[in-house]
Amino acid sequence: MRATTTSLDNNRVMLNVEIDDEEMNAAIDTAATTLAKQVSVKGFRKGKVPKNVLIANIGGPSVLRSEAIRESMPDFYARAVAESLIDPIGQPDINITAGEEEGQLTFEVEVEVRPVLSIKGQRDLRVTIPSPVVNDEEVDAQINRFLETDAVLNPVDRPIVTGDLVTMDIHVQQVATEAEPLDMSDFMYTVGTGSITEGVDELILGLKAGEELKMNGSVGDGVVATYEMKLKQVQERVLPELTDEWVAENTEWSTHEEMRETILTQMRQRKIIEAQMSQRDAMLVALSELIPEEAVPDVLVDAETNERLHDLGHRLSEQKLNLETFLQVTNQSPDDLLATLRNDAVRAVRVDLALRALVVAEKLEPTQDEIDEELNSTAASMDVTADLLRTNLHDTGRVISFNAEVAKMKASKWLSDNVTFVDPSGVAIDPAMLRVDQSQEMADESDDSSEQDEQVDA
Question: 8, 63, 379, 447: which one has the fewest Cβ atoms less than 10 Å from its Cβ?
Answer without folding.
Answer: 447
